[in-house]
């Protein structure tokens, strides 16, 4: 994975299919203990949005590589008092070896990467969540082995998670269906990009009917109906999204060996039921663990440890 050394990771479009495959293979080797790279570097976490899994998984991954982590909480640093992004980027560039940023506007992430020479990693923006998608596809590989030709259905809001899932599936030849209510479809340009990446290797579909969307699929995926920053809309969205709830009845239309995925946190009783997330088809906790392994692979590759 030396080809990733020193590069930014802002979107799945920054990687080739071979590079994504290589990261997933490296993540599996790291998870099994087959290899144990050492990387005495410093990771900065600049998070403008709340986080549990992303913050902890990045931190543990860096610590396990032998490095250090600095939490650049905007509430206790000058970025929270309006210091220009360009100034912050150029200063942190002199202190850190790599920075993971979790923010709202994707353009802010791109601007930071423009001004900083160190690698910049997307820890979530309103447009994309590429590290989550890597963990999702690693989970698929663990469950099915060969994943090319399998089908994943994402049910719910066509948000940043849906965007990155489409791109990652397209790169690896996995069919992806996104079922949303009218007006909540994934961004049209993201759909078109995913279809271009897929070529004739996979299908990328946007559907309305959740039952039709999950028919015969190997994986069903969902996320909260209102993402961070949309809390004021949450109550109004419930009746709109209720037909898209992932429950045991919906899952009966999928393949008998279907797995259930959720990027968490889950609003049980809304987008997913207790019976579904705690049932035998759920791989949600493996999926959450895999965040650490894929991010460890990403850090090791970008920092030249492998």
From TrEMBL:
<dbReference type="InterPro" id="IPR024904">
    <property type="entry name" value="OTCase_ArgI"/>
</dbReference>
<feature type="binding site">
    <location>
        <position position="223"/>
    </location>
    <ligand>
        <name>L-ornithine</name>
    </ligand>
</feature>
<protein>
    <recommendedName>
        <fullName>Ornithine carbamoyltransferase</fullName>
        <ecNumber>2.1.3.3</ecNumber>
    </recommendedName>
</protein>
<dbReference type="InterPro" id="IPR006130">
    <property type="entry name" value="Asp/Orn_carbamoylTrfase"/>
</dbReference>
<feature type="domain" description="Aspartate/ornithine carbamoyltransferase Asp/Orn-binding">
    <location>
        <begin position="149"/>
        <end position="301"/>
    </location>
</feature>
<comment type="pathway">
    <text>Amino-acid biosynthesis; L-arginine biosynthesis; L-arginine from L-ornithine and carbamoyl phosphate: step 1/3.</text>
</comment>
<feature type="binding site">
    <location>
        <begin position="263"/>
        <end position="264"/>
    </location>
    <ligand>
        <name>carbamoyl phosphate</name>
    </ligand>
</feature>
<feature type="binding site">
    <location>
        <position position="78"/>
    </location>
    <ligand>
        <name>carbamoyl phosphate</name>
    </ligand>
</feature>
<feature type="binding site">
    <location>
        <position position="102"/>
    </location>
    <ligand>
        <name>carbamoyl phosphate</name>
    </ligand>
</feature>
<keyword id="KW-0055">Arginine biosynthesis</keyword>
<dbReference type="GO" id="GO:0004585">
    <property type="term" value="F:ornithine carbamoyltransferase activity"/>
</dbReference>
<dbReference type="Pfam" id="PF00185">
    <property type="entry name" value="OTCace"/>
</dbReference>
<feature type="domain" description="Aspartate/ornithine carbamoyltransferase carbamoyl-P binding">
    <location>
        <begin position="7"/>
        <end position="142"/>
    </location>
</feature>
<feature type="binding site">
    <location>
        <begin position="129"/>
        <end position="132"/>
    </location>
    <ligand>
        <name>carbamoyl phosphate</name>
    </ligand>
</feature>
<dbReference type="InterPro" id="IPR002292">
    <property type="entry name" value="Orn/put_carbamltrans"/>
</dbReference>
<dbReference type="InterPro" id="IPR006131">
    <property type="entry name" value="Asp_carbamoyltransf_Asp/Orn-bd"/>
</dbReference>
<feature type="binding site">
    <location>
        <begin position="227"/>
        <end position="228"/>
    </location>
    <ligand>
        <name>L-ornithine</name>
    </ligand>
</feature>
<feature type="binding site">
    <location>
        <position position="291"/>
    </location>
    <ligand>
        <name>carbamoyl phosphate</name>
    </ligand>
</feature>
<keyword id="KW-0808">Transferase</keyword>
<dbReference type="InterPro" id="IPR006132">
    <property type="entry name" value="Asp/Orn_carbamoyltranf_P-bd"/>
</dbReference>
<keyword id="KW-0963">Cytoplasm</keyword>
<dbReference type="Pfam" id="PF02729">
    <property type="entry name" value="OTCace_N"/>
</dbReference>
<feature type="binding site">
    <location>
        <position position="160"/>
    </location>
    <ligand>
        <name>L-ornithine</name>
    </ligand>
</feature>
<comment type="similarity">
    <text>Belongs to the aspartate/ornithine carbamoyltransferase superfamily. OTCase family.</text>
</comment>
<dbReference type="InterPro" id="IPR036901">
    <property type="entry name" value="Asp/Orn_carbamoylTrfase_sf"/>
</dbReference>
<feature type="binding site">
    <location>
        <begin position="51"/>
        <end position="54"/>
    </location>
    <ligand>
        <name>carbamoyl phosphate</name>
    </ligand>
</feature>
<keyword id="KW-0028">Amino-acid biosynthesis</keyword>
